Amino acid sequence: MNLNSQSLFYPPQPDNPSDNDRYFLTRYVMSLAGRLEDFCTGMRLLAPPPDIRNYGRAGQYKDKKIAILGGGLAGLASAFELRKLGFDITIYEALEDRIGGRVYTYYFDEQKKLYHEFGPMRIPVSHETVWHYLNLFKLPTRPFIQYSENAFIYLRQSRARNDRNGYDTMKNIYPKYNLSENERKTNWQRLFQIAVESHLLCASPEARAETIQVKPFYKNETILWSDNSSMKLMEATGLSQEAISLSSNFAPLLYGNLYNSYIDYIEEVYPADLSYLYEIPGGMVRLPKTFIESFSTTNPTNFYSDMEMNNLGKVKYKSGCWVEAISFDSQSQKVIINYEDKKLKDNLLEEFDYVVCTIPFSSLRNVRINPLFSNMKMRAIREVYYTQAQRILLLSKDRFWERQGIIGGGSYTDLPISSIWYPSDHGKYINGSFNMNNIPFNESGVFVGSYNFGLDATRLGNLTQEKMLNEVKREIEMVHGLQGGYLDNIIEAQKTVNWDKEPSFRGALAFFEPEQKRLFSYSMILPEYNNRVFFAGEHISAVHRWMQGALQSGMQAANDLVMACNMHGQ
Predict the structure, then answer these.
(1) How many Å apart are CA 282 and CA 112, to the nearest integer?
(2) pLDDT for position 275
(3) Domain-located, residue 127
């Protein structure tokens, strides 16, 4: 369950956790879920691939040119690993004004103290590949507070506090739902567990593990989960439509994708992703920035242990370069990349020995490919579904939510804004007893005024900016029980990102429709052009949405590329 707090229940989360700390927390929550036997398998499947130097020697491939299409985390991880073996690497990134791909920290001030995230904002303790790089780069972390018992639930025009046992919701909101007698006696947390997790508990450990694996063939349980929507399998638990509607509000990603594949949502249930979480103080963008810093360092020991500078490959990072075509010369066995350089205002092409393509399929759909990739790959590029998502960040000169006792966590509603998320930076004030006198709530703060998916993201996101901001403020006031117009005097600035409207993404994240994992997941990872083009990204990984999937698939693509080099006798 996504009921986690830094200090309100056992065990507490330390800052900068050691690996043993993370394993303890993961084992604890797996035990609570009744699936302790999944711990070892889950951590193994989320671990980084073997070091690339198991497949080649340092500096071995100095004469080989690599193109990496996309400068997000998948591309950066591939480049970081391939550099160890001396490859000559060029990264083509469409974005001009920032780095990181979907990792998007937005700062409201020059001092970079007032910020929040448009992309990943949480790091689960179980995501081994992310922690591999956090530890390598010595980046600090602190708990991301996922749950606040003082946050609000606002459903069907009724308000409750999100207490841990759900009593306030049962008292104030349940009467608005036509629940069965047994459902009325069951808190929403248990209803959610029945709706979402019961199928996992009834399955074999091997089938559960396939939720975060890509394989050519899957077990019958996995196929059942792949081929059916969340709604259909939630109905199969015996819950009423009213109970499903009620409990789904507490998972906006699920509610926005109720009719998409069940397996895509439970990818994050299996490893208990939403139980113990962390963030990087100063912004998640510090991770991709550190990758890019490593490419130009003159002291490789800061990033590459036991490696000499003359063995490292060169990395060129070319921003503002839109890939327009990928083609293959079967005689020279070279891959040709055509791209538009926005800075030079010119269309250029370059030949490479190998390519790692991390372009989301939602954008790759508009890239000319000649000859075409395999039939199933081309179908996946055309058909794999990307869900809509939108976030609206608000800079407030007063932390009104902290005056109401909310430190971190989120409030949930059936209004179009869907959910509100509060910053965790004041979590340091509640490590001991919760004392309102210690909270500097008159400080400015940035919070997520709306985080929604699916139809709500489309419908809210297509309003004019003025009308959208006004609606968001009014809905936040309703959720918090504030007087109408209260926020007009304290909201100083706002910034909105609708990922459907971002030109280089055209969709927030991959989220399979029914049958798509069974049909496409394996063909999506296979290389093309005689093992010259490899693929990486969250959409290629079995772990959609998370930085884990991007980083792990990027590392794996680099390893696979080196093995292809060896196979080609190079």
Answers:
(1) 7
(2) 92
(3) yes
Q: Answer for the pair 239, 194: CB distance below 8 angstroms, yes or no.
A: yes
Q: Are residues 429 and 356 in the same domain?
A: no
Residue 2 lies in a domain: no
Q: What is the pLDDT of residues 473-522, one digit of tens each?
A: 999 999 999 999 999 999 999 999 999 999 999 999 999 999 999 999 99
Segment 162-209, tens digit of pLDDT: 999 999 999 999 999 999 999 999 999 999 999 999 999 999 999 999
Q: What is the pTM of this model?
A: 0.96
Q: Do 398 and 495 share a domain, yes or no?
A: yes
Q: Same domain, yes or no, for 496 and 397?
A: yes
Q: How many domains does the chain have?
A: 3
- Reported as a single tens digit per residue, the pLDDT across 211-231 is 999 999 999 999 999 999 999
Is 250 part of any domain? yes
CA 5 – CA 29 distance, rounded (Å): 13
In a domain, 23, yes or no: no
Same domain, 181 and 236: yes
What is the DSSP track for 142-182? EE-----TTSEEEETTEEEE--TT-HHHHHHTGGGS---HH
- Tell whether 193 and 287 lie within a shared domain: no
Exposed, middle or buried by CB within 10 Å (0-12, 13-18, 19+), for 235? middle
Query: Which residues pair with residue 229 across a beta bridge?
Result: 261
Q: Rounded to whole angstroms, how far apart are CA atoms 227 and 262?
A: 8
For residue 318, pLDDT over 50 is answered with yes
Digit-coded pLDDT (tens) for 18-34: 999 999 999 999 999 99
Backbone φ/ψ region at 424: left (φ over 0), alpha (ψ -120 to 50), beta: alpha
262 and 324 within one domain: no
Helix axes 73-83, 286-295, angle to 10 degrees: 30
Structural domain of 191: 163-270
Contact 222, 211 (CB under 8 A): yes
Residue 431 is predicted with a pLDDT of 62
Whether residue 219 contacts residue 204, with contact meaning beta carbons closer than 8 Å, is answered with yes
CATH code where residue 72 lies: 3.50.50.60
- In degrees and rounded to multiples of 5, residue 93 shows phi and psi of -125, 130
Q: What is the CATH number of the domain that holds 143?
A: 3.90.660.10
* Residue 69 scores a pLDDT above 60: yes
Cβ atoms 267, 542 nearer than 8 A: yes
The confidence band for 6, taking pLDDT boundaries of 50, 70 and 90, is very low
Range with lowest mean pLDDT among 5-19, 69-83, 340-354, 361-375: 5-19
Q: 270, 302, 327 — which closes off a domain?
A: 270
Write down the pLDDT at residue 217.
Answer: 97
Helix (H) / strand (E) containing 21: helix 19-32
* Same domain flag for 261 and 291: no
289 and 257: one domain? no
